[in-house]
Amino acid sequence: MPADGHAIPFIALQDGKFNVTDEAAEFLKSIDYPVSVIAVVGLYRTGKSFLMNRILLEQSDGFTVGPTVNPCTKGLWLWNKVMTGEDKDGRLIHYLIVDTEGIGALDTNSQHDSIIFSLALLLSSNFIYNSVGSIDEGALNNLSLVVNLTKHIHVKSSNAGGGEDDGADFAQYFPSFLWLVRDFTLQLVNSDGVAFSSKEYLERALQPVPGFTEQIEAKNRIRRMLTHFFPERDCFTMVRPVTDESLLQKLSSTPSEQLRPEFVTQMGTLRGTILNSAKTKKMNGTELDGLALINLAYAYTESINTGSVPSIQNAWNYICQSKCQHALTAALKNYENAAKDMLVNLPMGVDELDMTHRKLEAESWKLFEKDAIGDGLEEYKKG
At what angle do helices 312-342 and 290-305 cross, to 10 degrees? Predict the structure, then answer.
């Protein structure tokens, strides 16, 4: 069944600044429950949008798909409807879909690509990297953006001290990583002809290359960072969707009956793989709803636009302050409404009035604690 909704700009580059759009903010603020965030990233013109439409939206259109070498998606885009699905245990999954501008486009530079890559990582709970061919040295080199992640993302605040971040610091905040390899033609068998899984194929590709030259060290650095940053990783391979070259230019409008049966089967398997691994977006053990996600996006883009490096710790503090203020406003409103209802019982004695006040205050504080997150909640009680 075609999905309701449509793609909206999430984070757009305007006048040299990355800005969260009002449309995306309004949509996300309406989501008052935790969600998974699935982001797809890859080189431009490698079929990311086609993948999302057919597999995650289960329809032929949605995110923009084009037949030329001009990238169709600028910045980050968001499907403006919370999607639902079931995992293998029948658990209901609520997820958002984020599409990204293809990296390596002709009209961008490595700095721009690193920002797009970093924003997708920081905002998602499930990160899909889409590539074509195989996982060889060229494919790994295309992921060299990973090497620069520590330059574009910090875990700790610059004011907090504590030394540099390491792989373990990042790993606890980074999403799961699924490397999707399209148009795959290799046979996954070892030298004895025994088949092995696509996950093992990825693990073999991430094994260090022997040697000590500068070039080999650069190759192994990418492998080490992928291994340390993404302890929760997997791989999925797919055959070429069609054998007719002319259909490659119009895949989005090609009915499933004209796609290779093996590819259609793999689409269904991949959808199950993605939903089975979907996890709610969390920070410091706290599940994030739409309001928290939009504040996360605000915090990161504000850092980028001011020329500083986005800090996960600072972003968490930003979310906590916003969430606590929102919870405080709701708690005070609850107290005011209850106090107005109490007016019908006036007059009452001082002791009764004090007891009623304490009861309303306790109820409102309980309401605040239910929605507030972070440390230092007692400070709000003093205020």
Answer: 140
